[in-house]
Structure formats: C-alpha cells, structure tokens
Design brief:
nine-stranded mixed β-sheet
C-alpha cells in the first residue's frame, strides 16, 4: 500500500510513523500470484518439501525428469558424459591491442554413427590465471564465423568482458546442430550420436544438443589455467536463453545462468494471461525441432492445465546464481511472465538459506533487481542481447564475489 496517495486511514498512518516507518518508503502491495500455478515445493506424491535433502534427493530429480521427458527430450547414452570428445587448439593469437589472447579450438565428437566437429573461440586477458568465464552460445543470424573476429559487437562484447578482467567463450549454434526444422534433428551432432530410426516422442532435440555442446566446452575450460572452473557463467538470448537454462539445469558446474528474453518454453510462466506473448502451440508449430515431440503433442494450447511450469525449470539452478532479463518492447517473450518465473522459483534458494528474487513487484525499465541470488531486469529496447545486458550480468557476478584480472597495459 502506498501511503503517499492517501490510501491508508489516519490511524494506520500514525501507527506506521510511530514505528519509525516513513510513509513514502512503505512497500507497494505485492501483485496477486497468477492462479493455478503448479506447486514447486510439493512432490508428485503430495509431500511438502521442507529441507535441502528432500529437494536434492526427491523433488529436484522429479523436476529434471519432467523436463527431460516432456520438453527438451532424453539424451541417448552415447552422449551421456562427453567422454568421446577431443579438443585441439587450432590457433592462438593476441587480440584487442595485445590486451588479450584468443584461442580457436576445435572439438570432435566420435560417436557410434560417425564424427562431428565444431569450433569455438576462447578469449582471456593476457597472462590470465584462474579468472571467471562467460560462455555465449550465439543464436544470431548468419554463419557465426565473422563474430569471432569482432570483439566490439553488441551481442558478444568480448572487449568489454576482458576489460573487467573476465574471460569469454563464443560458439555459434549451427556448429552443434542446425537451427532448421526441416533437418528433423538428424544432422549435426545427431547424425553422429544416434540412428534416425531410433527417435521417438521423448528423444532429445536441438536445444538439448546445444546445451550438451556448452557442457563439452566446460569440460575443456576445466583444464585451462586461465579459467576459474568454479565460476563459469552460461549466457544465451532467445532460444539461446532456453539453452542456457537447460545447460544450468543439467550441468552443476555452471555457477551462473543468464537467460536473456527466453520467453515461451524458457523463462516465461505458462500459467499467466499474456495473450500478446508466444505460447506453446505457436512455438512448437514454428520450431518443432527445439523440443521433444511430446511437448507439442501433450501441451500445445494447454498452458493453463499443464501440470508443470517454467519456474520449476528455473528452480533447478538453485542454489547457484540466476539472472532472467527482458526488454520493454519484447512483448512476444512476455516480460511479466519471466519476472513471475524468477519470483516463483525463489523458494528453492530459500531452502539453502539464501535469498531468491528480492522484489515485491515488477520493476521499472532499466532498474535491475539484484539483491538476491536470483536477479531480474527489464531494459528499454527490443528483442536483442546488448551491452547493457552484459554489463548487468557482470555487475551481478561481481556482487557475488567474482573477481577478474584487469588487463595489463
């Protein structure tokens, strides 16, 4: 309730002042929780989750299995642990005026049905040792190759990242699996990992393949002296934001997930009336290759009756760090639905004695909410990943003790 507008009777106002609470600083009334949202802290058997042990041994595995079987698909045993991936540094050179070193790395997966190779770039401050890393799976248009030579672009400002003492990785989505529904999840990494005839409604799909690729890069980072393997952030925009969430959910080595305007099937709550935002029927019709077949078959047009929702996915990141971000003009991604996911996932962090999203209401544009282990911001602008977003992710990391190595002159 906002006292400034005379919404509280005199006696209540006087009591507030007597308690030392300034009327102008009183909190606004929290918005009502969307109706029908599936409960996060209740097991499939109806048991309320009250401890970390119950979460980690019962509830979290249930939720992970739910998203494997109903949204992103189950990965085949042939890619389960990445043991069949090898890495070679193809080239190494100084960049950014000698302030950083860029390594071009080739990864090769030797699967039961053939080999598949892909490349990624690793940029670190010159002389770096044990610095945090921001990994971007880029879903921008184009071939993705020119981006590795442009360190000042908005969607991957490697120069800005290095200037704050961090390292960064760039990999293009098409390197792992084509973003093409006509490919039907049989090209790229899929062609080496499984027989096309073995696929069914629960088989892994493109987002899961991209997330798997992120994890393989993390394998490599864990062996590099420049990288702090305990402080790896995965960043993704749009479909890449869905990929970042699934990477963090399936790989506990990810210390920070930055989900950027990931919208439907990513960070946007389904049980909320946002008719101008994307919904499951539309996304699975236009991009069926991102998800397992059962996602469309079972849940298209059924957002308000489905038994799970995206705050469950976000909660799989707990107790690690999570940022969800939106843009004011990106109504298709449903910013308020993304904020609600951050809010409703927060009890998972509270089990660990940590704060989730510390916010009572949806924020003003360009006013980040970063006081807990879950952060949210909505910036002015459209559907894109820009420097403002990157700066806020690095701010958040630094609030939680991430320290880089300032580049040498």
């Amino acid at each position: 309730m906002d006292y400034r507008y005379g919404c509280v009777k005199g006696l209540v106002f006087a009591a507030a002042v007597a308690c030392g609470v300034c009327a102008s600083a009183a909190k606004k009334k929290a918005p009502p929780v969307p109706s029908g949202v599936p409960e996060l802290m209740k097991t499939s058997g109806g048991r309320t989750v009250a401890t970390v042990d119950e979460w980690e041994k019962i509830r979290r595995p249930e939720i992970l299995k739910c998203f494997e079987e109903n949204e992103f698909g189950i990965r085949p045993d042939s890619v389960a642990d990445g043991r069949d991936v090898s890495f070679t540094v193809v080239s190494e050179k100084e960049v950014l005026g000698g302030r950083a070193v860029c390594k071009l790395v080739k990864a090769v997966y030797a699967g039961p049905y053939g080999k598949h190779g892909w490349q990624f770039s690793f940029v670190a401050p010159k002389g770096a040792r044990n610095v945090p890393v921001f990994l971007l799976m880029d879903v921008g248009r184009g071939d993705g190759l020119s981006a590795t030579d442009d360190f000042s672009q908005e969607r991957w400002p490697a120069g800005d990242i290095v200037a704050r003492g961090f390292a960064t990785v760039y990999v293009f989505k098409e390197a792992l699996a084509p973003d093409d529904k006509s490919a039907r999840c049989v090209k790229g990494i899929f062609s080496a990992a499984e027989s096309p005839g073995s696929r069914n409604g629960k088989s892994w799909a493109t987002i899961s393949a991209w997330a798997w690729g992120n994890s393989r890069i993390i394998d490599w980072l864990g062996k590099q002296p420049e990288a702090d393997a305990s402080r790896i952030a995965v960043v993704g925009h749009s479909r890449g934001g869905k990929t970042a969430l699934w990477t963090g959910a399936t790989d506990p080595r990810v210390a920070l997930v930055c989900s950027v305007q990931s919208g439907c099937a990513g960070a946007k709550l389904n049980h909320i009336a946002l008719p101008r935002s994307e919904h499951i029927e539309a996304i699975t019709r236009n991009f069926p290759h991102w998800f397992c077949g059962d996602y469309r078959a079972k849940y298209a047009g059924k957002e308000f009756s489905m038994p799970f929702d995206q705050h469950w996915l976000a909660a799989l990141i707990a107790p690690r760090l999570l940022v969800i971000s939106s843009a004011t003009e990106d109504v298709w991604a449903g910013p308020r639905g993304e904020w609600w996911t951050a809010r409703l996932a927060s009890p998972a962090w509270e089990l660990y004695g940590r704060k989730g999203l510390v916010a009572e209401s949806f924020p003003r544009a360009d006013s980040p909410q970063q006081d807990g282990s879950v952060a949210y911001h909505v910036r002015t602008g459209r559907h894109s990943l820009v420097r403002y977003d990157w700066a806020r992710y690095m701010d958040f990391a630094e609030k939680h003790g991430w320290k880089g190595m300032p580049p040498r002159d």
